Amino acid sequence: MTVATPTLTAYVEFASTYSYLAVMRLEEEAARAGVTVRWRPFLLGPIFKAQGWETSPFNLYPAKGRHMWRDMARRCAARGLALTRPDPFPVNGLLAARVATAIADTGERARGIRALFAAEFAEGRDIADPAVVAAVLEGVGLDGTALAARAADPAVKAALRQATDDAIGHGVFGAPSFVTADGELFWGDDRLEDALAWAAGTAVRPGRPQGA
Amino acid sequence: MTVATPTLTAYVEFASTYSYLAVMRLEEEAARAGVTVRWRPFLLGPIFKAQGWETSPFNLYPAKGRHMWRDMARRCAARGLALTRPDPFPVNGLLAARVATAIADTGERARGIRALFAAEFAEGRDIADPAVVAAVLEGVGLDGTALAARAADPAVKAALRQATDDAIGHGVFGAPSFVTADGELFWGDDRLEDALAWAAGTAVRPGRPQGA
């Protein structure tokens, strides 16, 4: 008899600062929890537009934005991660999301996504540029040129649209977001541990009678 | 020679769900970190209104609101806290904020604030009602009737306005928020540990050279 490994779907958006924090530790934390990650790049833009936002809430609400950048600096310092503020912010993550979607192999997709986030947020490279995307992927042993070209593939475009639609269907409104096999939604790098515990079946679940 | 105990200013808003989470553990966590809490009830309403919000963002953005309530249920279950959804939500916290501001003694203020949050979010009582506020405070050994009457005192009203202005001056945009003696701002129950570590001088601080 084989027992299925618990899985957790990770919705990540390349423009999202807190997605960077989560992406850089996700594989390690998931391995520790005995959970397999299903990586789904998606786009927040259509979700934000539907609620009337034309840019990141961190730009729309300056006090929130100032706290976010300071919080990122603190968290990155504590985790030993470099942080460079992308300029412009937010980056247009469409190309990177399509290219990451085009990577079929799970392990390769994880590696590619992590390399692209590090290029953007640690090194300040422009991941909206196809040449940069190709070079970053080549740097982690993937066929960057072929993958960058696949961004124009209608099937890849459709798959990314499907990921965004699926995210919306699960109630996603920000990034990163994590969805368990039983549909439980967790938002933010701050909820990664909770999401993994839920996926692994070790979380305290609400709704039981008081005192049970 | 006396060494001053580190302090942390806690800005809490009675309508705020995540303030409830923080308030119920703040004294214990602060004691463990060797930090003294300076309690400052404030009002988010004027801050939200200034950015065009007439109600809680959890009402304005339904997907965000649905996640918040589920997240609260999960966190409360994990911490052994009861949770009742206030109706209407958000409560008008003006009266409770004024009354809490009127409590001069630090220990009594902490006790009063905690009792009011528990009445609202654990028991579902209406803390916009002066009789309820008085009864809740009496229940923890305070002179609830006299304190409830002090909500109309112009000096108390002015002190609460000052707390809100000070919060804005520190960059506060949500609740709970924590501000250290050196002006570092931390937003959310999720950042309580970070704020206490910063106040206690044990946090990793950003801005040092790479690799230092």
Task: Write up this protein.
The radius of gyration of chain A is 17 Å and the shape is globular. Chain A has 212 residues and is of the alpha+beta class. In chain A, helix 1 (17-33) runs parallel beside helix 10 (192-200), helix 5 runs antiparallel to helix 6 and helix 6 packs across helix 7. The two termini of chain A are 33 Å apart. Chain A is built from ten helices and four strands, in the order E-H-E-H-H-H-H-H-H-H-H-E-E-H. In chain A, 41% of the residues are buried. In chain A, strands 2-1-3-4 form a four-stranded mixed beta sheet, with helices on both faces. Chain A has one domain: Glutaredoxin (3-Layer(aba) Sandwich). The longest helix of chain A is centred in the first third of the chain and has 18 residues, at 62-79. The interface between A and B is medium-sized, with 32 and 32 residues.
Give the DSSP E fraction of chain A (strand runs of 2 or more residues): 5-15%
Structural class designation of chain A: alpha+beta
The CATH architecture category of chain A equals: 3-Layer(aba) Sandwich
Largest sheet of chain A: 4 strands, mixed
Q: What is the CA-CA span between the terminal residues of chain A?
A: 33 Å
Low-pLDDT segments, ≥5 res of chain A? none
Highest-level CATH class of chain A: Alpha Beta
* Pair of chains with the largest interface and how many residues each contributes: A-B, 32 and 32 residues
Number of domains of chain A: 1
- CATH fold name of chain A, please? Glutaredoxin
Oligomer: homodimer
What is the averaged pLDDT score of chain A? Answer: 94
Order of helices and strands of chain A: EHEHHHHHHHHEEH
DSSP summary: helix tally of chain A: 10
Q: Assign a percent range to the helix content of chain A.
A: 40-55%
Shape of chain A: globular
Q: From the alpha-carbon coordinates, what is the Rg of chain A to the nearest angstrom?
A: 17 Å
Strand order of the largest sheet of chain A: 2-1-3-4
